[in-house]
Fold these 2 entries.
Entry 1:
Amino acid sequence: MCGAPAQGGTLAGIDLSTQTVIQGSVWHDGSPVAGAYVRLLDATDEFTAEVVTSPEGEFRFFAAPGTWTLRSLAPIGRAERSLDAEVGLNETTLAIA
Amino acid sequence: MSRTDVLVTADWAQEHLGQPGIVFVEVDEDTAAYDKGHIEGAVKLDWKTDLQDAEARDFVDREGFSALLSAKGISNDDTVVLYGGNNNWFAAYAYWYFKVYGHGDVKLIDGGRKKWELDSRPLSADVVERPATQYAAAEPDTSIRAFRDEVVAAIGTKNLVDVRSPDEFAGKLTAPAHLPQEGAQRAGHIPTAVNVPWSKAANEDGTFKSDEELAKLYAEAGLDEGKDTIAYCRIGERSSHTWFVLRELLGHPNVKNYDGSWTEYGSLVGVPIAKGA
């Protein structure tokens, strides 16, 4: 299990009392961006993981409590945002200008 | 061996599509991406169902690999050009695996599927059929594959390179952060290992950094070029990426990939484990 799990969808089966889930979607011009590369960077800006957004533009990471940066790459442009995550569900949106 | 012998650009790949004697192969764990669209003419290899034994935790055996490549229409004298998702992790794993089984000419597309997509290059959903061949794999070359006992023996004597993210190395995470946090029984790293995350060897678009940048990266991390090296990660795919850098791009002579990696080591009874940065 190390490939590219399907992004988005139900949280069923995910234990939100122990997992720190960071999820959200990538948007551009009022529409979700499918197939964007979203990477999770740690507090030192080091790469931690990368996924490809679903047809609905969704991404999901399993991290740990702390400060993280999300950065998306797509042919149409890039977006970036930082957040402080806690155990449980942490939702955010990345908007490509 | 030089960089151009083992690494091709996306431009080179696009110019050589359909050329006899060259087989493009996409390697992923989740082959859904291939099914939706792949480089024209490329065949697919599934990291799990094609390259792992169905029962034991190991490779498919020599006969199995021969049968697999025969069915995929790959010949011993073909140039195999690999690419895939996850910044070429699984393509690098397949590269190493093809080398274990003695394939002569193997190359990676620099940047893999990500670079190809970010460049908006064409993808095809056509089914690819190649006539079957009579592929003959060589005896496995264990000079590039490390097993657990030699990893334990390497503590404090050989270069051990842990290529996972800093938080996995420190023991804060037990898996890459796009996966649920599970895996080995214990978190941490092998004592005396240096942490050089695989991602430091790659640019954001998935291409490899220059030879100069790469040489500096491992020298600064304290890798002793006079010693043998073993690279590991969680299940051996990210460390294949670093194995490729050290042996194929930088030309270090004795570099092994430990595919048991943390899921094995972190579950062994009685071995030392270190935590923290």
Entry 2:
Amino acid sequence: MKNWRTHLGLFLPLLAVAGIVLWPVITENVSSRESAFTILKAIALASSLNILLGYTGYVSFGHIVFYGFGGYVGLYFVNEQGWSIWAGMLVGGIASGLLAFLLGKAILRLRGAYFALATIGINEAMRAFINNFDLFGGPIGMTLNFSVYKAYGGAAKALGMSFYIMAGLTFAALIISHFVRTSKFGLGLQAIRENEDAAEVMGVVAPSAKTWAYVLSAIIPGMVGVLFFFKNGNVEPHVAFPLHSSIELLVMVMLGGQGTVLGPILGAFAYQGMRGYLVTSDIFKDIQLSVSGVVLLLIVLFIPTGAIGWLRHRVPPLRRVLA
Amino acid sequence: MQQFNLLLTSLPDGILLGFVYGVAAMGLTLIWGVMNVINLSHGPIIALGMFGTFILFINMGINPYIGLFLIAALGLLLGVLIYFVAVNRVINAPHLSSLLATFSVNMIIIGIGTAVFTTSPYNVDFNMGSFQLGSTIILGTRLIAALIAILFTGGLYLFLYRTRPGKFIRAVTNNRAAAELMGVPSTRILALSFGLGTMLAAVSGALIATFFPFSILSGSGYELKSFVIGVLGGLGNPIGALFGGLILGLLEGIVPAFLNTAWVPVIEFGLFVVILLIRPTGLFGAKR
């Protein structure tokens, strides 16, 4: 009984994502499948970032580096070595995890804004490096050989399949996020977030806990990267490492509420929805970025804990359900 | 020998550019030093400075070096405005809040700028002649820009060490609570520091516009350079930023002589991360 209650917080997130997955399946509309894909991708990335940002309290400004790096490695094996997309995703995820492990050993010693700066530096260094790396196509990037799709029954079938894989990855990201949150390991991370020195005194081995949180938050973005570039059919350095998207992910986590499982879902959905509306609206389409900026500013200034944090604070009975 | 010649031609240019980069970084590092805020709206303000030169020179025919003073004044006012709107409320909040608050200012400026100027490149066709120095040709605009950069650094130094508001700024940098107890109006001083930081950004943008083409989005590249320079010179150490700028300028002058130019950012950002790791206080040590 007690066990069942701990996992109550997973119920709403799963339901929400299931709703997003089913929406295009029911309407059988390709364009709504594309928007659902974008939202699911945002949810998977934001939930992964949340493990580091929300639970551990480390602000990573260059989290997109794992998406780009994993995507590049995976696509290389799919395109040049003829591996299947499954093997490609696996190797992309592993590559990102490995990168996070090595980076984490080094840069997680830095705290606060210094860490944030280092992650920006790493993203830019990686982008500049890939730009010069001939094996991955340098500045032109890689274009997927069209025959790769044949193994999956043609391009249209492959696109449909990518949607379901994306859904699977999103569910995986949520489940990882939930189990990190409820585990003893996650408790250690949250102790680090509140006060790292005190946490160490209480017996949390901060360096290794932080490194594993970093690795966990990197694997899913790596796999998402492979899938997205596979679906898109090509990859270029400036598409793979957009610093801007890194910050958009931060905004999503912040919008929904950092340190919660449901928060990033809500944030990703709201942010993508708002962007979609602004880009197409007649009044705002020229200054959509400014309007997003104003909304973000208002949230940062007045509801810094995000929507879920605000609800939990205002309506205590909801705390059990809204995790 | 050919590499040596190439080095001789590209080095002076790199050094002159380094001074201008240094001014941009000085603004960033001043704000960081005083209030522990990384100003992510730095890049767009640099871009605004560029467009300031463009409007004043192309549309109104004012000499860019005279217009510079107007741009500096507007930059100061803009900074004070940004401080009170976006930063003041989150000054004591965790880092993420101030980072996102300044980033939202970044989005607002870029959004409006894109609507007004579009994202296509602009160019200020301004020529101050050039002269031969050994085997290399030095452009007049770059030399003057470097001189102005040095002038601004000297001015900032005098302001911080010789005037009363400057001393207040250093007191708040050192210990805000203690400064408040001594009667320093800390909110006004913080706003002034933020204004000075954005002023320096706008000035560097105005100078860069006299010799490079630019668009509303090109500020972000210089913002990243400012991060690198700030860390090289020690975050929170405005004078160190000038030396950091020189080092970056030297790198940009030296590396192309030996490697493809495309490798410059790899080395820059690699160096940036390494310095953060082994000496987070910068090569010259932050004044804390």
